[in-house]
Amino acid sequence: MTYCVGIINRDGLLMMADTRTNAGLDNIATFRKLHVFRVPGEKTFALATAGNLGFTQSVISILREGLEREEGRVERLVDQDSMFQAAQFVGEVIRHVYRTDGSAIEQHGASLEVSMLLGGQIKGRNLRLFMLYKAGNFIEATTDTPYLQIGEHKYGKPILDRAVTFNTDFYDALKLGLISMDSTMRSNLGVGLPIDILVMRRDEIDPEVEHRIEAGEPYFHDLRERWSAALRKAHNDIPPPPYGQKKS
Amino acid sequence: MTYCVGIINRDGLLMMADTRTNAGLDNIATFRKLHVFRVPGEKTFALATAGNLGFTQSVISILREGLEREEGRVERLVDQDSMFQAAQFVGEVIRHVYRTDGSAIEQHGASLEVSMLLGGQIKGRNLRLFMLYKAGNFIEATTDTPYLQIGEHKYGKPILDRAVTFNTDFYDALKLGLISMDSTMRSNLGVGLPIDILVMRRDEIDPEVEHRIEAGEPYFHDLRERWSAALRKAHNDIPPPPYGQKKS
Question: What domain range includes position A71?
Answer without folding.
Answer: 3-235
